[in-house]
Structures are given as C-alpha cells and as structure tokens.
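I am writing to request your help with a piece of structural work I have in hand. I am sending you one protein, given as its amino acid sequence and as whole-number tokens for its backbone shapes. Kindly check, if you would, that the fold set down in the tokens agrees with what the sequence suggests. You will find the record immediately after this paragraph:
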Amino acid sequence: MLKAEVIKQAQRYNMIIENSMDGCLLLECVRDDQNSIIDFKIAYCNAVGRQLARFPDDATGSTLLNILPHLSGAQQYELHKKVVETGEPEQFETTFRNETGEEYGWFIVSLQKMDDGVLSRFIDITEKKRNEEKIEKQANLLRSILNASQHSVVALTAVKNENGEIIDFRFLKMNDRYARLMNKTEAELTGSSYLKVFQSSMNYEMFIIKKKVLVTGRPYSKEFYYDANSIKGWFSVSIAPLGVDGVVQTIVDISESKKDKDRLRKIINTSKAGIVTLLPLKNEEGEIVDFKIAMVNKAVENFLKIKGDDIRQQSIGQILTKYDLSGKFEHLKTTFKNNQPQNFDVHLTNGFDHYFNVTIDKLDNELLITLTDFTEIKKLQISLHKTIEE
C-alpha cells in the first residue's frame, strides 16, 4: 500500500513538472579518475525544456557537451560546475545556442545543486526582452529629441499632502541642456525637491504658477530676469500641464536677443527721425477699417509732448482727428494691401505748424512709418520765396 502511494505521488510530481511552463533539466555529473567534472549527463528534461533548449527527443541519457559542444569552457557551463562544487544557487539571463552554435532567444536560467548534479530551470523571456528593447529605443529616441532641442526642458511631478494639496514638486525628467543650465547632473536632480533646489522668493513665485497651471490646466508663459542659483540672465519660460499630476517647463535663454532688442531700442530712441509702427484693425468682413499704434520712439513722444504708453494701442482714427492728419488713411491701406512703399510730405496744422517727410513701408504684418521733420528748412524756403517776391 505504501509503495503504491509513493508511485502515485511520484507520478503526480512528474505530471506537474512535465506540464510546467518552465523548462526543467536534471543534469548528473560525469567525472574523470581525479573526480573532476568533465561533462553532465542529461538525466531528465521535460517537454518545455526540450522545446526551449531545442534538444532532440532522445536527449535523455546523452551528455550536455555531446549535444551542445560549443558550451565547453563557456561561462554558462562553468556556472553549472560552480553550483555543484559550492552548493550555492545561481541565476542569470542569457541567450541559448542550438547544436550548430546559432544564437537565439532570451532566457532566465536558475541553477540549483541536486545530489551530484544540477537542476536547471529556465523561462523564455524573449518577448519581454523585445518589449524592453522597444521601450528602451523609444526612451532613447525621446531623449535624443529632448537633447537635440535648443531649449532647456524639465518635467516635474506634484507632491501632495494628505488633503490632496500640492506642497512641492519633484524633478522627474530633464534634457542635458537643463542640467547644464542648473550646473548639476541629471542624477543629482532626478527625484529632488523643487523647493529645496530653488529657495529664493522668485522661485516660490514660479512654484505658485506651476500649481496654478496644474490646477487650471491652462499653460503659462512669461519673460523675466533671473539672478540666483548661479544663474543670471533673461529667460522666456513656458509651463504646460503634463498629465494630471505634472508640469513640463521649457526655458529659453533670451539674454542675447534681449541685449539686441535693448540695443535696437536705444538706436531707435536716439534717432532724430520719428518712428511709428502700426497694426491693422479689421472688421468682420476682413476689411481694414483703422490702424492702432504698436510702437513710437522718443522723437515722436517729444513732438506730440505725450508719453508713448499713453498713445500705444490707440487707433489712428483717434490720432488723425486730434492732429488733423485726415486724408492720409488711404495711403496706409494702400501700402499694407499692395506692399508698395510710399513717400510724401505732410503739413501739420491745428495748433501746430510743422512739416514732415513721411515714408511708409510694410514690415511683416505691420506698417513702419518714418517721419523726418524738415520744418526749419521749409520755413526758410518760404521766407526765401517771400524775400524774392518782395
């Protein structure tokens, strides 16, 4: 009765192993006269094992090196010997080779000592490995795209308290340009607290803005001057939501362009000629009905005796009436529609007695107007004519 129960139990275990999704291979040591391991005899191999290892059906009873001679001296083979000699189990990832030495698949192999031999169990992870490779390729592609950007890009994830309130952000991902801007490595920043890295009041203001972007879902952009954390200059910052718990921030160093703009502004404001830029105002049918002032230089401000901020965004319709420039609106429309520069003289009256030479040019979606005051010359010319007539 006991013997029958043992046989039944052995058959049950054999059925479990035979139907296992893992490959199972029992190897017995083959030793020489000096008791050194020179090969392993295949004592048992289940159906999955034969399929994964690509063993022939009559592999049982043969030796490992007889079926796979390329294993002689290989690291995998030496690990089998090490497990027998030390009794310590081993686990590793590897590819397999068929009897001709051709490489295939990816497997996790677990080795465990059993009597004077090794129990080898192996799992096919080829699909998992391929998926990992795809993910890694996609990650590398994303990183390449980020690092190719001329802008500093960083992604942050929100840190919330038990009430769900955002109390901090943590650095999630960034490109190399951002790490260089911060004078740190990506490893130093990843996972760090935003408020600990940035401790100035300005950065707390940016923290509030990031919270607002995440809560409202509306992007934010701003130009500002920054002087902290060993960073100094003008920057353009854009912040947009990233999923439900993060934001992505793009930073562009505009210090040089800001200098160029400041330099150009100085040149424009020191010019003796008046300079004005106008933007068209259109009705629902797309017809230009007026122009609004976008920019004026100091010469225009001085002539009008009014600050540029007071007339910026005002329409020409308002200015024309005030300074008696009626009749010149068609010149503006013609230049804008046909991109044809115009040049003419205008005499300002109605409380003024000034003569200007006016040049109108189209500049992208604006009109550039240059006013050259030749009042003194004109008055001298008029005086000369009177003298000649007298």
In short: The mean pLDDT is 80. The CA atoms of residues 26 and 113 lie 10 Å apart. DSSP finds 15 helices and 15 strands in the chain. The first strand starts at residue 23 and ends at 31.
